[in-house]
Amino acid sequence: MNNPLKQLPQWISNHQKRKIQRIAHKLWEEDGKKKEPTYCLGAQSHYYQLKTSQQLHSAQRNLLNPLQLAYATKKQLQNILAFFKTLAILKILGILGNITIFIALITLLATEQQRRDAEIYQAWQVITAAHDQSGSGGRKEALEFLNSSPRRFPLFWLKWTPQSLAGLAAPKAHLVQVQLPGANLSRANLQETDLSKANLQEALLPEANLQKAELSDAYLQKAFLYLTNLQKAHLYFTNLQKAELSGAHLQEADLSGAHLQEANLSGAYLQKANLSGAHLQDTHYTNQNTPQNVCQSLPTFLKHPCPTIFPDNFNPESHHMTLITNLNQLKQILTKYPH
Asked: What mean pLDDT, rounded, does the chain reach?
């Protein structure tokens, strides 16, 4: 019988022929034979000639069938194409995601002021709705929000400017421990309002109405209270250190135990005020002999003379208070105030 290897086409390489020989030899070894074939490695068994021939013809058909090769190639190309399609879809989805994030960011930036304005409007609505109510009515939280400096979003490195509370009308409101440092409350109506333990440090309260207000244990350091109406106000143990009280109306106010060190009481009205136990070291005041240019240079632009009017039989010198005698002295005093 002819050597089956010779039946293979001429274009089959020697390397491929050797692979076919090894397949035939493996087949022979699997049947437990020890002899080598006479052809393709020298075996003598006619049985293995036929079996090897069949295997070689099967391998030949697999190698030479162009349809099978084309099908296999097509499948591989389809798999590769599907892979690249998946990558393209993922890339498109990534781009769309980035575009969505960008649009959302632009929308946030474009509507930031609108959202802030809406929040401010709602806070004022709460304050207005609670007018004439004796309780808080949500005003405490609303006022604290309006006076706050929250971080902007998404521009978190910037802060919003606090809103002015000038002209606020909240008489008889319950605002215990309200936090309003630096608030602009000029000309506010806070008559009989409970502001005990409130934080009003460096607040602007010129010409505000705080008549009969409860301000015990409140913090009013460096607050501007010139021309403020504090008649009959409860100011016991209130911290008024370095507060500007020139021209303030403190008639019948209870200032017992109050801290007034380095405060400015130039031209203030303290008739019948209770100053028992008040801390008045280095508190500034004026008298009939204060020069005219000093009176006119005060934040209240008082007419001359502009004496501080104390309760009957009160001696400011015995309380270690400081009399303002010249303009340079007044200028040094005013530089201590933040506003």
From this structure: 81
Q: Which two tokens stand for residue 127?
A: 């304050």
| 24 in a structural domain | yes
Is residue 264 assigned to a domain? no
Angle at the Cα of 191 from the Cα atoms of 189 and 193, rounded to 5 degrees: 105
Cα–Cα dist 227/287, whole Å: 17
Instruction: With H, G, I as helix, E, B as strand and everything else as coil, classify residue 282.
Output: coil
Average pLDDT score over residue span 212-229:
96
The amino acid sitting at 130 is A
In this prediction, residue 39 carries a pLDDT of 44
Looking at residue 154, the DSSP 8-state letter turns out to be: S
- The residue among 45, 9, 12 whose CA lies nearest residue 27 is 45
CA distance 266 to 288: 11
Residue 60 forms part of a structural domain:
yes
pTM (two decimals): 0.67
d(CA 209, CA 167): 10
Task: Give CA–CA dist 25/33, Å, rounded.
Answer: 10
Res. 287: pLDDT tops 80 = yes
Residue 256 located in a structural domain = no
Residue 175 confidence (pLDDT): 95
- Residue 60: which domain range? 9-64
Q: How many domains does the chain have?
A: 1
